From TrEMBL:
It is found in: Membrane. PANTHER family: GABA PERMEASE, GAMMA-AMINOBUTYRIC ACID PERMEASE. This is Amino acid permease. Gene3D superfamilies: Amino acid/polyamine transporter I. It is a multi-pass membrane protein.
Length: 481
């Protein structure tokens, strides 16, 4: 199956720390948040807070499973074991599709920014260069991916911290420039002007922005102490989301009115609007530089996680075995890297032929993948925990208030999806993603019936895996619940 000896690892603790931070911070925070603010008003803070709590609880559930058995396929593998092969197949391919398609959009944004700075080449030319360059990075040892994410993530963190400092000075009227407002913008036009339904609806765009926190559980399989790294990342999710998302969005709704037309301008974004209001020169250039860093980081992570998901699917017989081929020296699944980059090349072609609008239709089908993934994780944790309790296994890292909090998450996600369908703003995204999931299920049934992917790889029983993970893993034994 593999020319090499499988994934070789090489990620260090500092890489994992920055991967866990960078995974939460995407370009949607700097640009796309304006749409959510316009939709929900200042109450969007509640939507970001609710989304952050949801991500934290889901990560806690995922951590319970991942500490026991770190796996490159992460929740796709757990869905296979806890629910059934169809569930692992479906969520694995749906997750791959999300990240593979997102790469094309990131390449497009990067091409637009670079073409604006250096118009000597077409935007599709810059997108092509970015795609080829990051494919080269992912052909090498995973340590190179970790280094790129470390520096990309560091730039984003520094940018947000500076924004928080300057924005706080403006809120308390200590910033001497511009005409940005203060706390009065929180209530001048109503805190929740469009009702609670708009706050719930804004959750979908917010979950799309927060998608990526779970990447650390995929990457942990290529570290020397996966259990410890997963727990460390999960415990830091709270302050990262509170600081980077809730904190920065709070400043935005304080400093500019929620109905400012520029907030929904796709060429600007919320950070740009705030910097302009504070009288900071070259605001557009500054934000574009940060967004460029973010899209490069997101592209890099998307290519990494999608290739690893293909590797895991192939190892389990749910994708063609060629996708599990790895380099003899690098250990990178280079066939999976090439296949995962297909949509990036499709985007380059659409940019060159001025047909990028068709790509927007494809992006709609990924609208609520995050909620479907999180729903799957919650259902997996519910099944696996019940099985463990029946077997009397000892848990070293576990979800709180089981099963009530797990059920609360499941019901909240289902209610949020139903609200989005009934309210109508994101109805198409929910229906498209549901239809896509159904198509993937049918493809999985056909593939397994005709043996396209190959036989399911031999795995020890779930009971044996979990008992070994919780009772025998050296790093997990040192963890406190």
């Amino acid at each position: 199956m593999s020319k090499g000896e499988g994934l070789k690892g090489g990620l260090q603790s500092r890489h994992m720390t920055m991967i866990s931070i960078a995974g939460v911070i995407g370009a949607a925070l700097f640009v796309g948040s304006g749409k959510q603010i316009a939709l929900a008003g200042p109450a969007v803070i509640l939507a970001y807070l609710g989304g952050g709590i949801l991500v934290f609880l889901v990560m806690r559930m995922l951590g319970e499973m991942a500490v026991a058995q770190p796996d490159t396929g992460s929740f796709s593998t757990y869905a296979d074991r806890a629910i059934g092969r169809w569930a692992g197949f479906t969520i694995g391919w749906l997750y791959w599709y999300f990240w593979a398609l997102l790469m094309g959009w990131e390449a497009y944004v990067a091409g637009q920014i670079l073409h604006g700075w250096f118009p000597v080449a077409p935007n599709w030319g810059y997108a092509l260069l970015l795609t080829l360059g990051l494919i080269g990075v992912n052909f090498m040892n995973v340590r190179n991916y970790g280094e790129f994410e470390f520096w990309f993530g560091l730039i984003k963190v520094v940018a947000i911290v500076l924004f928080l400092v300057v924005g706080t000075l403006a809120v308390v009227h200590l910033w001497p420039f511009g005409d940005a407002g203060g706390m009065s913008n929180l209530a001048d036009r109503g805190f929740m002007p469009n009702g609670p339904g708009a706050v719930v609806t804004a959750l979908l765009g917010i979950m799309f922005a927060m998608m990526g926190a779970e990447v650390v559980t995929v990457a942990a399989g290529e570290t020397s102490e996966p259990g410890g790294q997963i727990v460390k990342a999960i415990r830091s999710v709270v302050w990262r989301i509170c600081l980077f998302y809730v904190g920065s969005i709070f400043l935005v709704v304080c400093l500019v009115p929620y109905d400012t037309p520029a907030l929904v301008d796709p060429t600007r974004g919320s950070y740009n609007v705030v910097l302009d209001a504070m009288g900071i020169p070259y605001a557009q250039l500054i934000v574009n530089a940060i967004v460029l860093t973010s899209v490069c980081s997101c592209f890099n992570s998307a290519l990494y996680v999608s290739s690893r998901m293909l590797y895991s699917l192939a190892r389990r017989g749910d994708a063609h075995r060629i996708m599990a081929v790895t380099g003899a020296s690098s250990g990178a699944p280079y066939v999976g890297v090439v296949i995962s980059s297909v949509f990036a090349f499709v985007a380059v072609y659409m940019m060159a032929t001025s047909s990028m609008d068709l790509y927007d239709v494809l992006m709609q089908t990924t609208g609520c993948v995050a909620l479907f993934v999180y729903l799957t994780i919650a259902c997996c944790q519910l099944r696996m925990r019940q099985r463990l309790q029946a077997q009397g296994a000892e848990l070293k890292f576990k979800m709180w208030l089981f099963p009530w909090l797990t059920w609360a998450v499941i019901l909240f996600i289902c209610a949020a999806l139903l609200t989005m369908v009934l309210e109508g703003t994101y109805r198409q995204e929910v229906l498209y993603t549901s239809a896509l999931g159904a198509v993937i299920v049918l493809m999985g049934v056909a593939a397994q019936r005709f043996g396209i992917g190959g036989p399911k790889a031999h795995e020890p029983s779930a009971r044996k895996i979990l008992e070994q993970g919780f009772n025998g893993r050296r790093e997990a034994a040192a963890l406190k619940p």
